[in-house]
Predict the 3D structure of the following.
Amino acid sequence: MSKWKTRTNLVHAGARRSQYGEMSEAIFLTQGFVYGSAEEAEARFIESGPDEFIYARYGNPTVRMFEERIAAIEGTEDAFATASGMAAVNGALTSMLKAGDHVVAARALFGSCLYILDILGRFGVEVTLVDGTDLTQWQGAVRAGTRAVFLESVSNPTLEVIDVKGVAEIAHRVGATVIVDNVFATPTFSKAVEMGADVIVYSATKHIDGSGRCLGGVVCGTKQFIRKVLEPYLKHTGAALSPFNAWVMLKGLETLDLRVRAQAESALTIATELEGHPKLSRVIFPGLPGHAQHRIAMEQMGAGGTVVTLEIAGGQAAAFRFLNALEIVKISNNLGDAKSIITHPATTTHQRLPPEQKAQLGITPGLVRFSVGIEDVGDLLADLKTALAAV
Ligand SMILES: *Cc1c(COP(=O)(O)O)cnc(C)c1O
């Protein structure tokens, strides 16, 4: 484990320098590696050292730098990078499960995560969905054959915060592995290991890139899980992160803490300012004392995160008028970007859910998800208030 603090790790952990002593991390844009002799090739296929690579689907020096850096800040022994966040979620679950296994998952999940649970069902894994915020439901659903529990620590888009420590205690009593999709918590505010998570998954596409350039993902966990369970599955199924994208993510990590803390501070200012606004029927932000899981959010993140969800009074028509009147804030569906982004989940990211499921998840026609960027918070507030006045 690293002896440095997070900010130092974000800039230096995992760095590998070539014989040229380059300052900025090199992009090793190569899929293969040359061996000095046939004997050396043979030896490397039997066992590779930490700086010995075989093929970029298995590992690459730039990708390895990214994996070591994220593991250092997450506080896990190891990490494996993937081509996208979904490849990371799929890899974490599929690599450890087989027909007959049982999984318990929170029902408020990103659409693609729900799809992966459906695929697992097709291959004979039994999945039970629960209200993630209700520990008695987790307790009622786990049993001796439960191999894994899966949850998003903060749900999208309604920002329910799940008590990771409480769920982990319940899961560990039956020997289940706790897999946490921690995108909304961000690596900056993550205390997932401390809370009892065994495997932590990020879509690096979001805050880690932070400038909306590349897709990427990463799974963090013990050396045993990452190298003995996950790596064999991922290296043979081919969801490897491109070395170029790994380099973009490495550079993103350098400024991650600065960006995310600034975004979270602006998010709190905006949520506080907009609470009680006459055009809004709800302001949802875990950093507000009135949020149903405020205490848990403070304990497991120490902040409310970088996303604020608003419900515009007047339904979809009012929400669309609000979106269309924004000038700085862009209509798009990424999050964690330096640029502020707004999404209308009911007609975009969650469009395909049947109306009953939308209602159950609280995805109402007036709901909008606002990912707070790093712009001047005064400018953002003025943009939001002007657009609200147009509703
Ligand atoms: C975006 C996201 C994903 C998927 O990540 P991609 O990089 O788009 O594949 C998974 N989980 C959550 C919570 C996300 O926000």
User: Anything to note?
Assistant: The first strand starts at residue 78 and ends at 82. The chain is about 40% helix and 15% strand. The two ends are 52 Å apart (CA to CA). The chain has two domains: 6-252, 256-390.
